[in-house]
Amino acid sequence: MIIIPAIDIKGGKCVRLLQGRMDAETVFSDNPSAMAAQWAADGAELIHIVDLDGAVRKSPQNLDAVKKILETVDVPVQLGGGIRDEETIRMYLDIGIRRVIIGTEAIRNPEMVKAACKAFPGQIVVGIDAREGWVAIEGWTETTRTRATDLAREFEDSGVAAINFTDIHRDGMQSGPNIEETRKLAASVSIPVVASGGVSALADIRNLIPLEPEGVVGVITGRALYSGTLNLREAIALSKGVVSAS
């Protein structure tokens, strides 16, 4: 299981939101690339970027900040937020993003996502954000009547590299990940699943590790790292079995 530090960008700054609310932000850094450098130095194997403005405006909005991160670190980067078409996917991959995350279009236009998986093998991740089990889209501003597990099954055998699963109610709240919903989603598909939302401390990583045999291959964490309640080096060591998970 890999530990994936998150860098959420809004107005060019590194922020964290509470439950995805754009009006409930905390600015942690004016320099997202410096944060990326810190996570890389701490041993991150993958960095997760979200263009929060892009998610709302439906197109890339923080490209300069993203490019600066790519210039600063050698660690692979995945990115989501505002990716609505193949042209945007290609643009991000061309500038050095390793994997792109598609959320809203997975509901709106699943055939586009499946076509992208064929065009860019191993580089498309489906982001499934759920509120009480129902998929939320458009930067979490709209809740659909599609179950997260049903959406995940839609992409079985389509070549999706992974599913990033976020429990919105827990995102940024440091209340612990939704173990049962994450387990349920991972059990519903053979696609690797990355958990997100609610991580607050090393104990939460310890609680997620037993899900690895069921297909949970990683966990994204943000606020806990920025607030200091989780140390990235310690979390990585735990995830690799360098320290006991018991």
TrEMBL record:
InterPro entries named in the record: Aldolase_TIM (IPR013785), His_biosynth (IPR006062), HisA/PriA (IPR023016), HisA_bact_arch (IPR006063), Isoase_HisA-like (IPR044524), RibuloseP-bd_barrel (IPR011060)
Catalytic residues as annotated in Swiss-Prot or TrEMBL: D8 (proton acceptor), D129 (proton donor)
GO CC annotations on file: cytoplasm
Entry keywords, A to Z: Amino-acid biosynthesis, Cytoplasm, Histidine biosynthesis, Isomerase
An MF annotation (GO) of this entry: 1-(5-phosphoribosyl)-5-[(5-phosphoribosylamino)methylideneamino]imidazole-4-carboxamide isomerase activity
GO BP terms: L-histidine biosynthetic process; L-tryptophan biosynthetic process
EC number, UniProt record: 5.3.1.16
Keyword Isomerase on entry: yes
Compartmental location: Cytoplasm
Known catalytic reactions: 1-(5-phospho-beta-D-ribosyl)-5-[(5-phospho-beta-D-ribosylamino)methylideneamino]imidazole-4-carboxamide = 5-[(5-phospho-1-deoxy-D-ribulos-1-ylimino)methylamino]-1-(5-phospho-beta-D-ribosyl)imidazole-4-carboxamide
Database matches in Pfam families: His_biosynth
Enzyme class: isomerase
PANTHER family tied to this protein: 1-(5-PHOSPHORIBOSYL)-5-[(5-PHOSPHORIBOSYLAMINO)METHYLIDENEAMINO] IMIDAZOLE-4-CARBOXAMIDE ISOMERASE
Record protein name field: 1-(5-phosphoribosyl)-5-[(5-phosphoribosylamino)methylideneamino] imidazole-4-carboxamide isomerase
Protein's organism: Desulfonema ishimotonii
